[in-house]
Amino acid sequence: MFPAAFSSRNAASTGRRFARRNAASTNVQIGAIPDSTAGQMDQANQQESSVPPRARAVVFSVHIFTALGAGVALLALLEAVREHWTAMFGWLGVALVIDAIDGPLARRFDVERALPDWSGEVLDLVVDFVTYVFVPAYAITASGLLLPLFAPLLGIGIVVSGALYFADRRMKAPDNCFRGFPALWNAAAFYLFLLHWPPALSSLGIALLIALTFAPFHTLHPLRVMRLRGLTLSLIGVWALLAVFALARDFQVGAAVTIGLCAIAAYVVGSDAVIRRMRSFSA
Questions:
Q1: In angstroms, rounded to a whole number, what is the distance separating the alpha carbons of residues 140 and 253?
Q2: Which among 240, 241, 243, 223 is positioned nearest to 232, based on CA atoms?
Q3: Least confident of 9-23, 101-115, 190-204
Q4: DSSP per-residue codes, 199-225
């Protein structure tokens, strides 16, 4: 009996000492860890509260304008399901205009500072994925212009490679060029309908573009690359006029229009590589 009682008292005493020691250690550890998340949230709330409510409403309308691109993508998809391809490309063109305007608007109104809890970058990526990748992928797969056996596989390849490309933090180079083929599947679908190659050749072309998504070459960003920017913007304007003409004619255009559209596409895709090669020769 006595040894058992003695050991119980020792165990209790030892347990109390460990409990006090752990409590003291816990207090020291908790006090040493700064609550950075709370500080960031307080700072964001202070920034947002410094903007008047009416100004915040105006700024938030920029996000609504960007999100409108997703609604336009839905309209394009509905036209694609009905196989109204010209109307589909028309709506995708409207989405392109929205995408070209919303960035300058966001910078003009300093949206990131006024609404720190809302990520314009994430919103833009979501909308761009459905307009540049998902809807065009459906059109390419359902167009009947690819080999029937490979069309679904190529469609899956488009959306998977596009999703991975959008998640790649290296998708843009320091000079604002895109790395590899920049998931411009709306443009790829447009040229697929314009050129109307045999299904085997079209399937091979789509497979090649999927493979080039992560290839080590640069593609011009039509609006943000400063080198030869005047020439680039002029060519993009000509391309837009020729594309509208081709859609108005339901892709039934002459060789001159087709060659012009293809030449501008070759400039966007290949001009950076040509310039780099010429510089390497002259060095």
A1: 20
A2: 223
A3: 9-23
A4: HHHHHHHHHHHHHHTTSS-EE--TTT-
Which phi and psi angles does 74 have, rounded to 5°?
A: -65, -40
Domains of the chain: 53-282 (1.20.120)
Of 115-129, 148-162, 211-225, highest mean pLDDT: 148-162
Phi then psi for 253, rounded to 5 degrees? -120, 165
Question: In Å, how far from its chain's centre is CA 42?
Answer: 30
Specify the DSSP element, H or E, that contains 179: strand 178-179
pLDDT in tens, 27-37: 444 444 444 44
Tokens of 225: 């690359």
Query: Among residues 133, 124, 13, 12, which one has the least CA distance to residue 62?
Result: 124
Name the one residue in this structure whose structure tokens are 């080198």: 227
Q: How far is CA 89 from CA 64, 121, 135, 193, 223, in A?
A: 22, 25, 10, 10, 21
Evaluate whether 82 touches 176 at the Cβ level (below 8 Å): no
As a whole number of angstroms, the distance between CA 125 and CA 123 comes to: 5
pLDDT tens, residue by residue, 2-34 = 344 434 444 444 444 444 444 444 444 444 444
User: What is the C-alpha separation between 73 and 98, in angstroms, rounded?
Assistant: 11
Q: Are 200 and 148 in contact (CB under 8 A)?
A: no
Q: What is the pLDDT of residue 34?
A: 46
What length does the chain have? 283
How close are the terminal C-alpha atoms of the chain, in Å?
Answer: 95
Measured between alpha carbons, how far is 19 from 26 in angstroms, rounded to an integer?
10
Write out the DSSP string of 12-28. Answer: HHHHHHHHHHHHHHHHH
AA identity, residue 203: S
Contact 135, 77 (CB under 8 A): yes
